[in-house]
Inverse folding.
């Protein structure tokens, strides 16, 4: 049921006329995405979009960050908490309190004692979706880009259910980078912490956090966070407003008391459906032919700039294309 | 000859007394590094250290970036150019001209017509070292952390020399993240573009660049750059001064003419050996027992914060420990 992209063999499907007449321009990730059919793009529901307005920068420019929340069946208890927190305007007046280079930017309530809205509690840990077959109509949306943690290549060896990265497959499901192991009814899948992905801050295990404290990855993804922290979304616009902030000099990149002026104030966080002029976005269907070509080109760059194709690509080096369609 | 770390089996070598009396604190990457023996640290030669002074930030704070140049047998024609450029004070008065989110920060001569010192020319491409056995006394310094692009796990399948990521092993050699394939005399190895690693900007292939235009990785490493661009060093201090700069809004993250005020001026770039009070650093020997333990702990976090050990780790998630020892 799990669809596999045959990376090396995938033809680029160039029009015959172009092949007959002249050598075509080599495909680039950009040219492949530009050629996607309209029906290969999927609209993101307004209830999955969160709009965070940071205080303007020193030059007075607005700083808007847009987060796409992860859809079912992943991380939904936290996602529901986040919708409740946004509806309660809970983040208004909070701040970005931690920026650790090559790791995370983290935001929330500096005092750590701001009361939470009714019903917002840390759920039981459920970092994996363990009965995907029951929760989705088809598993064909899980697309492997190669075994062994997302590096493309020949078909992976038979899965043996070992609970480690090596045994896990990585790829994409429903528009999101995923890792999984098992097969059919025993399939276990979980979302991956890539650059710009948003997770739930927490204390020591088994605490899972509520979703009030959030972070995003601003460097090399640390895959050991997967299944230990909840991935609840990804930044689809304005990532630079979080990644380019001054780093904190305290432990773990927290700003010290002397660096209070470096903390960026959060003016508001709203569900897009609650805003006056909601922005809209769509992402490239990860089960589409164009996405398969895009992965292939990412893994085998052979345009004028490159000489040696890598022949493989890390799952986090394949960013799911997202584009704004309104407002 | 290539040494392999048996990740899962590696004992943590705890003192017997601790085992007998109480459950020891679980090891963390930090605790493992702190316990390294003095002789496991290797001094970085002053001629391999480059000190770049950026213009002070808006609060008047100095911004010093220290780069470690990669040692032989890798990328030496460019490294020699870089030493010549630094000795000629060529970068003084140049600037940071490009900051592309989740990709690179790049610096050099904005006009692109500043004359280069005598002898600084783009070398023939030699991104790989192809006769390592002749160039080093032993290959035992190439340490694999698992097959398939640096993900730890069981021994990799036999190498078949295929020219792709899947067939390549990844790990560490001489203190640097490396990928390689082949065996013994046929071994080909090359350095990896990880976060904070420095490479040589260039035009279209087969141009290889001179080393006058440099970049560093500020996001997800893009391994397709390996063997297509020359890795010449890594930032070992002050990375945050390059990663937290405002992103450029022009194509590829270049600053536009309207964003001239965002370009960060480079006051000077000097070889440490040329400075009045040279800083000194050392790195943890990647062939040491402590480094092996460090990789193991990175791949299998089981301290109080983590519940599910990953069982593997990407080569770029294992930063080689570097510490300052003087000035």
């Amino acid at each position: 049921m799990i669809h596999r992209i045959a990376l090396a063999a995938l033809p680029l499907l160039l029009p015959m006329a172009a092949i007959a007449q002249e050598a075509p321009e080599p495909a680039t990730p950009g040219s492949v995405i530009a050629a996607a059919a309209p029906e290969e793009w999927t609209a993101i529901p307004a209830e999955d979009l969160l709009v965070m307005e940071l205080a303007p920068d020193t030059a007075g420019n607005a700083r808007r960050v847009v987060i796409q929340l992860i859809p079912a069946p992943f991380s939904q208890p936290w996602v529901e908490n986040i919708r409740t927190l946004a509806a309660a305007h809970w983040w208004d007046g909070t701040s970005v309190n931690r920026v650790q280079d090559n790791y995370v930017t983290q935001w929330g309530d500096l005092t750590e004692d701001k009361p939470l809205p009714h019903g917002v509690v840390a759920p039981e840990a459920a970092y994996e979706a363990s009965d995907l077959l029951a929760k989705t109509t088809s598993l064909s949306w899980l697309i492997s880009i190669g075994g062994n943690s997302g590096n493309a290549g020949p078909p992976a060896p038979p899965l043996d259910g070992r609970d480690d990265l090596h045994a896990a497959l990585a790829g994409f499901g429903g528009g999101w980078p995923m890792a999984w192991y098992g097969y059919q009814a025993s399939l276990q899948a979980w979302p991956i912490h890539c650059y710009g992905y948003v997770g739930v801050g927490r204390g020591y295990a088994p605490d899972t956090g509520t979703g009030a404290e959030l972070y995003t990855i601003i460097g090399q993804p640390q895959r050991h966070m997967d299944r230990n922290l909840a991935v609840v979304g990804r930044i689809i616009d304005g990532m630079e407003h979080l990644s380019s902030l001054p780093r904190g000099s305290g432990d773990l990149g927290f700003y010290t008391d002397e660096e209070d002026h470096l903390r960026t104030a959060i003016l508001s966080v709203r569900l897009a459906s609650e805003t006056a002029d909601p922005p809209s976005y769509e992402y490239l269907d990860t089960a589409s032919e164009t996405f398969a070509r895009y992965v292939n080109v990412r893994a085998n760059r052979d345009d004028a700039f490159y000489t040696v194709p890598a022949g493989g690509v890390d799952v986090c080096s394949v960013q799911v294309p997202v584009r704004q369609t309104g407002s």
Remarks:
- Chain B is about 15% helix and 25% strand.
- The longest helix of chain B spans residues 76-87.
- Helices of chain B lie at 16-21, 29-34, 76-87, 132-135, 147-150, 240-243, 289-299.
- The first strand of chain B starts at residue 3 and ends at 4.
